[in-house]
Amino acid sequence: MENDPEAQANVFLGVQRPLRLECGVELKNFPVAYQTYGKLNTEKSNAILVCHALSGDQYIANTHPLTGKLGWWELVVGPGKLLDTDKYFIICSNILGGCMGTAGPREINPDTGKCWGLDFPVITIRDMVHAQAMLLDHLQIETLFCAIGGSMGGMQVLEWAATYPERLCTAVPIASASHHSAQNIAFDEVGRQAIMADPDWRGGNYQEEGTIPYRGLAIARMVAHITYLSEPSLQRKFGRRLQDRTAVTFGFDADFQVESYLRHQGSTFVDRFDANSYLYITRAMDYFDLEGRYNGVLGDAFRNTKTRFCVISFSSDWLYPTVESRRIVHALNSVAANVSFAEIESDNGHDAFLLEEPEFWRVLSGFMDGAAEHFGLPNYALSKTD
Amino acid sequence: MENDPEAQANVFLGVQRPLRLECGVELKNFPVAYQTYGKLNTEKSNAILVCHALSGDQYIANTHPLTGKLGWWELVVGPGKLLDTDKYFIICSNILGGCMGTAGPREINPDTGKCWGLDFPVITIRDMVHAQAMLLDHLQIETLFCAIGGSMGGMQVLEWAATYPERLCTAVPIASASHHSAQNIAFDEVGRQAIMADPDWRGGNYQEEGTIPYRGLAIARMVAHITYLSEPSLQRKFGRRLQDRTAVTFGFDADFQVESYLRHQGSTFVDRFDANSYLYITRAMDYFDLEGRYNGVLGDAFRNTKTRFCVISFSSDWLYPTVESRRIVHALNSVAANVSFAEIESDNGHDAFLLEEPEFWRVLSGFMDGAAEHFGLPNYALSKTD
């Protein structure tokens, strides 16, 4: 079924050989939910792994089953689009620790028959990538033409490049970083504390107890959402404009549009996301420290790599600012890796990678086309003239 | 008693004539708690009003009665210090809406004999300043040598300059803004939502019901605290260093120093601050929009002013960035006001105004000395040779 134009599937991995997590726990017979788009060619050389971000999932280019909304990368992935599903076989799996079908705190612990909750082992970006590699084994895909992703997706891409260089032709980390900064950790910690402060969280056991810590999760989403937008874009979108009123009310309602918008972001997130997953995924991001693993020498993560890199940042992204992407580029340069770098001028902040950004798309398109030609993708010429 | 070297007092204001608030409510016979330092000279020309910020209070240069810690501006205010109490008579009153003795949601509503709670009227920066002016009337001080304050204190200073120009020789707004931006409002709204999401908030009625919404208030403080520090200072202070451990624990404890620090900030704040006050004061800040009041022409707030201004910002302050101070300076220039401006190079972020910042102190000292000479402070020459 992997070759259906648009297919979703669930598979149990680690059946023969469990996945040994960085924390030491072995995860066996665990579900991974994924989507594919396009067809794998006979040479199996046109596979692209899209790595999703904290609040993303595998529904990149089709209707989301819970929200009924378009996929989060619908602008980029599809027939004739930048990641052209007429040409590429696109895979996106829900990350380990997620809440859309892959093993995570919301799933059933096969040993107890109950939800994992906080008994789920704390996972890392590397664990996520190992699970993705196991999925590729299952799909009998040896080599990825590309691993691409924004934000935490970019961390997975970097981890792929460091851990499985021989399986990766190209790597595109977008609006990302090779480690979480103190400020990144701080914002994540506020979100976690908001969730854990909600009495309905029940020490993580809310599923068994039939509650939902929606207030805490909404607060976590609200604070995170501020970090996804630049100050200029907030000013442009909302400024000090009032919400459905002509004067302030001298009260604590959402007088301002920006308040109403944030509240809406919080309340809709709760309908599609799991609070414990939020804890696990933010923790994985906080633990991410690629240079730390190589004693502070990030270049060592990529030594002798043959992967071609395209590193992209956005000028107004203050969550993972350009300086973080430059650090990656310098490390790649230090080991003479093949790397392109572009800082895209945009006032859309961190979320720019999800939005219509013509310059970003031009850079990415140029890189992908060049790499397809370089790696001799069989259908490349054909697709170009279709 | 106002002339004691260091004195604290409570006074009831609005006894003869109530304070008409911007929301329309009249506040009568309401308490204002304040501290004074130094002596008022016989000419009554050496009074400085220090305006405190969101989480500050009147204890600027003496031990705080609840925390036992030094005053928040102990570095700047005292004998022989920058704001020299041998020379100036320094006044700081707890703001309207505060929780250290001045009328606010924690105080008793004289009409009901119960705590105000959410029945307290929503107040504005202008209301705070009107209450301060009433305090000066009570102290029989017609003219302030200076109004000075950082952050929300700076907003009060600007409001003073706009509302009582004839009572103000000099104005020093530090790390402040003439209105709250969409991002400022957004962060405040997250804090308010965190408080109101705490079941112990009890719809604002927690005092009557004997609970304390400490979890919500701690979350609010944590997120605000991140905005007070710059990314570089967080990196310098904490980076990715672990807290009392040599490796991550693969759990949700405070593995990182920055997490531990934030949790501490949250939990200690709860011991000295009132959750409802936090709602009211952040609301006052969000409502602050001096140019809005003058149809978008900020200069009109200061037309014909004789006040001398010293506007100060810090290069790494991203909560009230330099561009906000420049907006104030441009407005003052547009009406040919007397204004000095300095952007202080510092990586301490917004909180720099509370810290040891030699360049900031040099600028402020130069301005104060010049102004004291210009306005012919009687004891000026004497103090200089003391």
Give me a quick take on this structure:
Two copies of one chain form a homodimer. The first copy, chain A, has twelve helices and 14 strands.
Could you walk me through the main structural features you see in this protein, from its secondary elements to its overall organization?
The structure is a homodimer of 386-residue chains. By secondary structure, the first copy, chain A, is of the alpha/beta class. Chain A has two domains: 6-183 and 288-385, Rossmann fold (3-Layer(aba) Sandwich); 186-283, Rna Polymerase Sigma Factor, Chain: A, CATH 1.10.1740.110. Chain A is built from twelve helices and 14 strands. An eight-stranded mixed beta sheet of chain A has the order 1-4-8-5-11-12-13-14, with helices on both faces. In chain A, helix 3 (182-197) packs antiparallel against helix 5. The longest helix of chain A is centred in the last third of the chain and has 17 residues, at 358-374. The two termini of chain A are 25 Å apart. The model of chain A is unreliable at 381-386 (pLDDT under 50).
